[in-house]
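[audit] Reproducing an earlier prediction to check determinism. Same input, same settings, fresh worker. If the tokens differ from the archived copy the diff job will pick it up downstream; this log only records the rerun itself.
[audit] input (235 residues):
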Amino acid sequence: MAKRTDQKKILSIDIGGSGIKASMIDLDGKIVLEYKKLSTPAHATPENILQIIQRLALDFPGFDLISAGFPGYVRDGIVHSAPNLDNESWKMTDFCKLLSNTLGKPAKVVNDADLQGLGIAKGTGLEMVMTLGTGFGTAILNKGHLLPHLELAHLPATKSKDFDAYIGNTALLQIGEKRWNKRMERVINIFKTVVNYDILYISGGNAKKLQLGLDDNIKIVSNKDGIVGGARLWR
């Protein structure tokens, strides 16, 4: 078997509404350096987020490429919305270019749930990923291929709330885990009917708070399970 000659290292970044994490992986998705985490700044503008990423990057010398998962609608590296950050300051920001210029390496940026999906999906059938964190994220893959990103979190869940507000972390803190789990049961049943997924993966910091009887084709996974997505962006 030929020895791999492109042993490039990837700085894999996960940007969240409450924290920003970074780790170093290789092109096979294996962890080279375990992740570090810093808090997302209260005024989460592109400039302030980049400052945090620069601080994190100091702990990961020698990376060649950058992969980033972003909590919003991203198309061709350009941010169209960032509802859980400083939304107005992000609109139409070429974050891929900013990230590459700031750190001096080639970068790719996709929605954070999409990045998770690329890492978690097994490549069989129609697979869906839900992320339960500061907000609510989704990704859909067909036979391992990431489908165009849809902001399903911003479909109306009630007359006054979209799904992001309905089951996001703010709602969880306001209504408590028991009522939140009732909402999650409704949400899962809706997407089961609408998407007709073969398997659903649920990740994010609040996934561990689910207290439901889940179908056999629903799996709780950790954010670390999706880290390989940062490598698949470059393959």
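[audit] rerun output stored. Observation attached for the diff report: The chain is about 30% helix and 30% strand.
[audit] end
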